[in-house]
């Protein structure tokens, strides 16, 4: 540990949060249908999309209709992507000559990219054609992220409404967010990545002659464009198996910084936009503070665990104060630590180091960040609505303590909203612990593990946490391309995305219909340090109550086993 | 990545139906869940 490492972690978070405010202001204009600086160029395209798809721009939807559009769009996307992956050998742009992927892998991958998870049970450069990567996966990187941000926009409108009936129009939100936010910013990022050394080509491979006189075939893809939306849309699926540890995906310290910033900036920006739409900027600042505090704490904790002498090396008197296993030498411990905290807090899933190779507690912190609900700052859009669910529970708890009906941002929070909120937050433990418990005793599941004992349990827990939280990062050490893992992880991804979001829509619909109340002297303030502390406590206690027993059997016991093994020598 | 036997064309078609049906059934269930919540 050193000063420059700590400074890197703090500065990375500070730069991300600082950039989120102007982006949030812009995003709020997009959500509200207001004029933007891209209108002269994109307005005709937007009109064309509405005309082509028969969308009526002045029609607002109720929450059930909005949810039906969201589900219908996702279901259609699932079928299209499934067919692309299965029949990629019959489709163009397959210079690699790959066959169609297996049915269970196509199911897993289609669900994965439709749910903004981007879990990858395959080695991309050895399984997917350029067409599958571009038309199949990259397009869904845009659309699934836009769909998530659309839900966040609907939630913002629900809080802004005064006895309203609608929460917006899904098709308009999807179109505007894709056209005005994701496409232009991804284009700018892709150009920056190319300038910083990432390849952007349709060539399948290049042959290099090594200094020893041998030949090496190196896979190529249009990497920069995929990398841009991979991080901005909190998708995380790599075009190469090594993800952002691959020198083509993440060649240097500048691309590394850009990737961390871009994977978190939209999460914070959605909250900033929410604050503008709801006219509650101070409350939005409090939510952003909570998010940033958790990323700072997680990054610091991982940095601390990865810069202690590993017990086995200490016993062998190896002079080292950093555990470099699983880390790129180009990035070192601090850049890996903040990347891991940012990617697991954001439901991104891109990695620049292998979390499986972290010290047990470091890997445990990464896993716990996912289990806290992917709200820190969370995925594109999903971070905001997940955090709002937590805020509702926090004001409900505060209301119980002081004996008043809880309110949040001018809306009375009653039993109905809390029931919906609980239905949402219980999905994660149900999917993670339910599937995890079955997999821990089922031989067909255990075959995929590379490690026995506590570390093996960590691999199982991480896989289901990653899938259910729609994160998509892999712990490594798990061979997941089997029928069991592909199917159950696919179901976990579906539950984590869609079973969570349905109660969120119901909350939005319920709140939209309520009158907007003015704050009184008895209103619990939700913009100050007391609320920040309360919200941090609620998130930690809920996460701890749900997952601490399982974590105790995985990374925590592994930590003590490592210490004990060294002491016994 | 584990080595796996590729399914035959017939097995593949059957499995395609199974997995497509599984995915679409899940979306239908989520839709039903939304209707249920509406009545809550």
- Gross morphology of chain B is rod-shaped
Mean pLDDT across all residues of chain B, rounded?
87
Q: How many DSSP E strands of chain A?
A: 4
Number of strands of chain B: 0
Alpha-beta classification of chain B: mainly alpha
Helix content of chain A: 55-70%
Q: Biggest sheet of chain A, in brief?
A: 2 strands, antiparallel
Q: Look at the structure and give the mean pLDDT of chain A.
A: 95
The string of secondary-structure elements of chain A, in order, is HHHHHHHEEHHHHHHHEEHHHHHH
List segments of chain B where confidence is low: pLDDT < 50 over at least 5 consecutive residues. Answer: none
Biggest interface found = A-B, 40 and 24 residues
**Strands of the biggest beta sheet of chain A: in what spatial order?**
1-2
What quaternary form is this? Answer: heterodimer
User: Distance N terminus to C terminus of chain B?
Assistant: 46 Å
The main sheet of chain B comes to: none
Protein described:
- The complex is a heterodimer of chains A (569) and B (40).
- Chain A is mainly alpha-helical.
- In chain A, helix 9 runs antiparallel to helix 10 and helix 10 runs parallel beside helix 20.
- The longest helix of chain A has 39 residues.
- Chain A starts with a helix and ends with a helix.
- The model of chain A has no long low-confidence stretch (mean pLDDT 95).
- Chain B is mainly alpha-helical and 40 residues long.
- Chain B is built from one helix and no strands.
- In chain B, 15% of the residues are buried.
- Chains A and B meet through helix 3, helix 4, helix 15 and helix 19 of A and helix 1 of B.
Task: Jot down its keywords.
heterodimer; A: 569 residues; mainly alpha; 4 strands; 65% helix
């Amino acid at each position: 540990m050193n000063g420059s490492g700590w400074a890197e972690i703090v500065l990375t978070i500070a730069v991300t949060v600082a950039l989120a405010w102007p982006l949030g202001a812009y995003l709020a204009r997009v959500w509200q249908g207001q004029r933007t600086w891209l209108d002269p160029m994109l307005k005709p395209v937007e009109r064309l999309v509405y005309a082509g798809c028969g969308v009526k721009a002045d029609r607002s939807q109720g929450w059930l209709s909005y949810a039906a559009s969201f589900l219908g769009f996702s279901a259609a996307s699932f079928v299209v992507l499934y067919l692309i992956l299965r029949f990629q050998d019959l489709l163009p742009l397959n210079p690699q000559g790959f066959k169609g992927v297996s049915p269970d892998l196509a199911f897993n991958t289609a669900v994965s990219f439709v749910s903004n998870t981007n879990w990858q049970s395959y080695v991309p450069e050895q399984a997917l054609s350029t067409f599958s990567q571009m038309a199949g996966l990259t397009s869904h990187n845009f659309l699934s992220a836009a769909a998530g941000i659309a839900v966040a926009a609907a939630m913002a409108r629900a809080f802004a409404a005064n006895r309203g009936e609608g929460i917006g129009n899904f098709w308009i939100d999807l179109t505007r967010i894709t056209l005005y936010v994701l496409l232009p910013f991804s284009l700018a990022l892709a150009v920056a990545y190319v300038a910083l050394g990432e390849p952007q080509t349709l060539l399948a491979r290049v042959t290099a002659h090594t200094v020893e006189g041998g030949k090496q075939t190196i896979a190529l893809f249009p990497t920069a464009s995929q990398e841009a939306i991979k991080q901005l849309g909190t998708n995380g699926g790599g075009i190469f198996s090594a993800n952002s540890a691959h020198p083509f995906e993440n060649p240097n310290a500048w691309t590394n910084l850009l990737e961390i910033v871009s994977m978190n900036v939209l999460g914070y920006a959605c909250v900033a936009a929410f604050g503008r739409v709801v006219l509650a900027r101070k409350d939005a600042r409090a939510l952003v503070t909570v998010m940033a505090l958790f990323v700072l704490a997680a990054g610091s904790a991982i940095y601390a665990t990865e810069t202690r002498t590993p017990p086995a090396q200490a016993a062998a008197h190896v002079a080292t104060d950093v555990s470099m296993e699983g880390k790129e030498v180009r990035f070192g411990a601090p850049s890996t630590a903040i990347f891991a905290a940012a990617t697991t807090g954001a439901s991104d899933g891109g990695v620049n180091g292998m979390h499986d190779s972290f010290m047990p507690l470091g890997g445990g912190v990464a896993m716990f960040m996912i289990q806290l609900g992917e709200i820190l700052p969370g995925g594109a859009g999903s971070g905001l609505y997940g955090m709002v669910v937590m805020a509702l529970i926090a004001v409900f708890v505060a209301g119980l303590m002081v004996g008043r009906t809880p309110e949040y941002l001018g809306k009375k929070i009653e039993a109905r909203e809390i029931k919906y909120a609980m239905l949402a937050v219980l999905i994660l433990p149900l999917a993670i612990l339910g599937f995890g418990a079955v997999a821990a005793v089922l031989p067909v599941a255990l075959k995929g593990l590379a490690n026995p004992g506590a570390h093996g349990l960590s691999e199982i827990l991480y896989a289901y946490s990653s899938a259910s939280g729609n994160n998509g990062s892999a712990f490594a050490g798990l061979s997941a391309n089997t029928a069991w893992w592909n199917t159950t992880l696919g179901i976990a991804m579906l539950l984590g995305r869609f079973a969570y979001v349905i109660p969120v829509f119901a909350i939005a619909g319920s709140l939209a219909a309520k009158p907007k109340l003015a704050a009184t002297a008895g209103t619990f303030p939700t913009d100050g340090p007391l609320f920040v502390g309360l919200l941090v406590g609620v998130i930690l206690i809920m996460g701890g109550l749900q997952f601490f027993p399982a974590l105790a059997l995985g990374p925590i016991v592994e930590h003590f086993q490592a210490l004990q093994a060294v002491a016994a020598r | 990545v584990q080595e796996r036997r590729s399914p035959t064309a017939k097995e593949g078609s059957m499995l395609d139906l199974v997995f497509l049906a599984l995915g679409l059934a899940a979306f239908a269930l989520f839709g039903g869940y939304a209707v249920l919540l509406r009545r809550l």
